[in-house]
Amino acid sequence: xxxxxxxxxxxxxxxxxxxxxxxxxxxxxxxxxxxxxxxxxxxxxxxxxxxxxxxxxxxxxxxxxxxxxxxxxxxxxxxxxxxxxxxxxxxxxxxxxxxxxxxxxxxxxxxxxxxxxxxxxxxxxxxxxxxxxxxxxxxxxxxxxxxxxxxxxxxxxxxxxxxxxxxxxxxxxxxxxxxxxxxxxxxxxxxxxxxxxxxxxxxxxxxxxxxxxxxxxxxxx
Length: 221
Hints:
The chain is built from three helices and eight strands, in the order αββαββαββββ. It has helices at 2-26, 150-154, 186-193, and strands at 129-130, 140-142, 159-167, 173-180, 197-198, 201-203, 206-208, 210-218. Strand 3 (159-167) and strand 4 (173-180) form a beta hairpin. The termini are far apart.
């Protein structure tokens, strides 16, 4: 049955197509008119101005009146004197002068007026050195006893304050620094040592500044 249905469908389609073709051939009517071609109207275009280059202007021709820089002058210069014929003669020197020696006061050869050279700067002081066995140790020549502070005395504070003193080449005390401190006694010890005086320390026979250690003993009687 399926096969018969397929055959019927083919027959129906063929009949429809055949009828359509016959209808187009048999139909009576006018043919369609062709499309009108597009015509461009030149009046609708915008005019464009084209700038033409300016004509070149010819350079003016050089006239014959132009004077060269190297041309000889046409007018004689002013201020030129007439030649006398004695230009080659040497004028005689004035009376009392010697040929070959300039006249005038003799040059100053004594050195007067020449600024003196600046004196050399003083030598920088030598740095103090630590006192050692190869030196001649300074000897105390002026001794000042420390003032025992009243507060330390009342509190029965006693002991030894160790200081480091810097002596200059003349044996004067320049500065003092505390090495071993007793707070209530340090100020009195420093004030006393700053008033001491020593003989100069000697190194190879020369006086030199030194750094030495001194002690101040505070004892209650």
